[in-house]
Amino acid sequence: MKYVKSYMPQEPTIWTIHELLSITQGELHQNCNNCIGPFRSFAFPLSQLTNDTVLLHIDDLGWAKKTVTASGQRNKSLQEILSKAEKLSNVLVVTSARNIPPTSVPIIVVSSTYDTLIEAAKFQRDRFEGKLIAITGTAGKSSTRDMLAALLTKIGTTFASKGNWNSRAGILLNLANIPQHTKFAVIEVGGGAIERTSEILKPDDAIITSIGENTTRRNPTIRNVAEMKAKLFLVLPKGGRAYFCEDVREFGILLKAAERAVPKIIGGDDDLGISIEILNRCLDKSILRVSTQNSVEEIECRVIGKGQLSNLALAAQTAFDLGVHPEEISLAIREFRLQRRKMEFIEISLDGKNISFLDDCHNATLISFKSALTHIREVITPEIYPIMIVGRIVHIEGQKKSIYTELAKEIVSCNPQAVVLYGPDLSYLSSSLEKSSVRVLASDTPLDVIECLKKIVPEKGFVFLKGSHRGTRIREVSTAIRSYARGGSLTR
C-alpha cells in the first residue's frame, strides 16, 4: 500500500457559491456572469490550485509572513493570481482588493480573506458529521497521520490533512476542506497552534506522538514542550480518547491533562484490546507480534526505527478503537510504506560499490535523530562502520550547544567511519565529534557530499542521511545521491 496525498473521496462537493456568499458576507463581482461551482477544494497555497477550487487571494494584514511565503503568493499581484486561475476551469477567487482587473474568473470581494478562512473553517467543522482525530508531537505527526488515515479507510471515507500544513492557517485550511459526509478526519496540529485553533478544531480524540526539544525560543525546556502539547488533551470532550506512549518524556504531564478524557497508554499495563510487540529489528524491516483477545499473529513490515514503530502502535490502537477489525489492521501493517525519505531503506550503487542507504532527511529533531541512531546501533553488524551525512536541526535557538553535544554522543556510539556535515551552523557538532576522534568532513553542496562519498565509502558500505530541510535543502542531497546512483552525471 502506497500512501497518497489525500484520502478524500474521489469527487466530493465541498462548497457551493451560495454557502460562500453566506459565510463571507461578500459580494460577487458584477462583471462575472459565469456559471459558478460547485467546488471541490479550498486553497490559498498556489501549489494546491486545481480545477474546481476556491482560491483565497492573500492580500490583507491578517496573514502571517511565513504563511504568505509558503503559499507562493508573496509579491504576487491580483492580476498574476487571476492569470493562473484563467488557465483552469471552475475556479473562484476570493479577494479583498477593490480594483479588479478585467477577467473571466468569478470573484467574491470580502473585507478580509484571512477572516474568510476562519469562517470557512468554522462552518465546515460544524457541519462535519464524522469523527475528528487530532495529532501533535515533537516528531512523528505526519507519519502517524498517514498510518491512521490508511487504516481508517478500511471502514469509511477518510480525510487527512495535507503536507505539513500544521500551523494555524494550515489547520484552518484543512478544516475548510473536510467533506461534510466523510466518516473520519485526521488533522495534524503544530504545538504552537493548539491554543489558537482548539475552539474551531474541536477534536473527538487526540494523539500525542512524542515530546522532545524543539522550538526552543518559545519552549526552552522539555516540560514547556509537554505542557504546550498537552493542551490538545485538555480540549477533548468527555469520553474523548487521549493516546500516548508509556515511555514518552514528561509522562505525568500528559497523564494529568488526559484525566478528563479517557487515557489510552500504549505500552502500559492496561489491556487495550490490541497490542503490538517488536520481536526482531532488521536493517530494512521489523518483525512484529500483533495480539488481540482472539488472535496472535507474527507480521513482517517495512516500518523501522523505534519512533516510527511507536507511531504505528498509536495509529493501530486508535484505528482499533474506532472500529477497524484486527485482521484489517494486520493486513495493512504488512503493506505499510512510509513516505519517501522517512526511515526509507534502499540499496544503491556508487561507482560500482553496493551501498545500503538509510534516508531519513524528511525532517529532523533531536528525538527523531535519537530514534534513527538507536535503530542503526541495534541492527548493523560490528564490522560495518557507517558513514553519516548530517544536516542542521532547526528551531533550537539558545540550546544549540547542549543539543549538538548530545547528538554527537549519539553519533559516536554508532562508531561511524566518518561524518559528513552538510551546510552551515554546525560548529558545535563538529567540535564535539572531533573531540571524540571522529573523522569530520564538511560539505556545502550536494556535489560536495557525493565527492566525499566517492572517496571514503567502501564496498558494502552503509550511508545514513538526516537533517532538517528548512534552511538547508538537505533533501537535494538525497535527490543527488539517488540520481548519481542511477547513472547521472556530476555537474555544479
Provide structural commentary:
- The protein is globular.
- The strands form 4 sheets. It has a 6-stranded parallel sheet with strand order 7-8-6-9-10-11, with helices on both faces. The protein has a 6-stranded mixed sheet with strand order 15-16-20-17-18-19, with helices on both faces. Strands 1-5-4-3-2 form a 5-stranded mixed sheet, sandwiched between helices.
- With 492 residues, the chain is an alpha/beta fold.
- 35% of the residues lie in helices and 20% in strands.
Layout of SSEs?
Elements: H1 17-24, E1 27-28, E2 41-43, E3 53-56, H2 65-71, H3 78-86, E4 91-95, E5 107-109, H4 113-127, E6 131-136, H5 141-152, E7 158-160, H6 168-176, E8 184-188, H7 194-201, E9 205-208, H8 222-234, E10 241-245, H9 251-257, E11 262-266, E12 274-281, E13 286-292, E14 296-301, H10 306-321, H11 326-335, E15 344-350, E16 353-359, H12 366-379, E17 387-390, H13 400-412, E18 418-422, H14 427-435, E19 440-443, H15 446-456, E20 461-466, H16 475-485
Parallel strand pairs: 2-3, 3-4, 4-5, 6-8, 6-9, 7-8, 9-10, 10-11, 16-20, 17-18, 17-20, 18-19
Antiparallel strand pairs: 1-5, 12-13, 13-14, 15-16
Organism: Sulfitobacter sediminilitoris
GO molecular function, one term: acid-amino acid ligase activity
Pfam families: Mur_ligase_M (PF08245)
Determine Rg (CA atoms, Å): 24 Å
Quaternary organisation: single chain
CATH class placement of the largest domain = Alpha Beta
Number of strands: 20
* Gross geometry: globular
Q: How far apart lie the N and C ends?
A: 37 Å
Major sheet details? 6 strands, parallel
Helix content: 25-40%
**Beta-strand percentage?**
15-25%
| Integer average pLDDT | 92
Q: Specify the CATH homologous superfamily of the largest domain.
A: Mur-like, catalytic domain
Low-confidence stretches: 1-10
Query: If classified by CATH, what would the architecture of the largest domain be?
Result: 3-Layer(aba) Sandwich
Count up the domains. Answer: 3
Number of helices: 16
The structural class is alpha/beta
